[in-house]
Amino acid sequence: MLKLSCKGCGGCCTSKKRNLFVILTPKEEIKFKNFSTKIKTKNYKLTVLKKDKFGDCIFFDSNKRICKIYYSRPFECRGYPLLIHFDKKLIFKIDKNCTK
Fold this sequence. Notes:
Layout: H1 26-31, E1 36-40, E2 45-49, E3 60-61, E4 66-67, H2 75-79, E5 82-86, E6 90-94
Antiparallel strand pairs: 1-2, 3-4, 5-6
């Protein structure tokens, strides 16, 4: 079993160092309809959570460094630091930048 500890840095909710997007499942697309947008990748159109003007997730409280919807956050957020990448195939990676 993989056991990781959160550093509490907010890196999963911000994109200041890298370009992260929260990809929504079809069910989440409905739940977060007013808080999502479509992006086009090389092979797909994906629905992702919107970002604020600083590139942070719209649900990230930058003062408290916490998620405002933590208990109802999307699947990809729940699995973090496991990152889901879509290219020609589905790839899972561990984001080592935000773990102890």
